[in-house]
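Exercise 3.2. Students should predict the tertiary structure of the chain below and write it as structure tokens, then compare their answer with the key that follows.

Predict this chain's 3D structure.
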Amino acid sequence: MNDGTGGGQSVCMGIGCSKVFDGQASHCPHCGAKAITRDSLRRRGWFLVACGILLLGLMAWVLAYLVPPMLAGGEEVEGSRFTGTQEDVQMIMGVLGAVVVFGLASLASGLIQAIQGVRPRAIIVVMLVLAAGLFAFGMAVRRGLLG
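Answer key:
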């Protein structure tokens, strides 16, 4: 009997399946992928929440430190001076913005996972697409700087 607490239920970890089923099993009876208990999935969700909060906190600190010198147009602000170009500012803000999006996605995904005991597929897909985009961007920058 499902009492809504998630006790005694398992969740398939397969991306294409993600079914919830009664009992504690190491593999999904539908697709054979690895399965974990909902309680374990909830603990992982709280870990994602903590990671999201950490990322957002670090980005807030980094932005508070970087933005004033970048806006000062080459003038010294609190012992720092930014001498980069407008393109440098756009690149820096783009990368930092992507990290903020990762932090928000981690926080949202973790909350859903911790509260509901399921994996939110849409957020996972967004994070994978963003990661692929960041990787491609990093490779393009690396080729431009080294080649």
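Discussion points: The beta strands are 9-12, 20-22, 35-37. Helices lie at 38-71, 86-116, 121-146.
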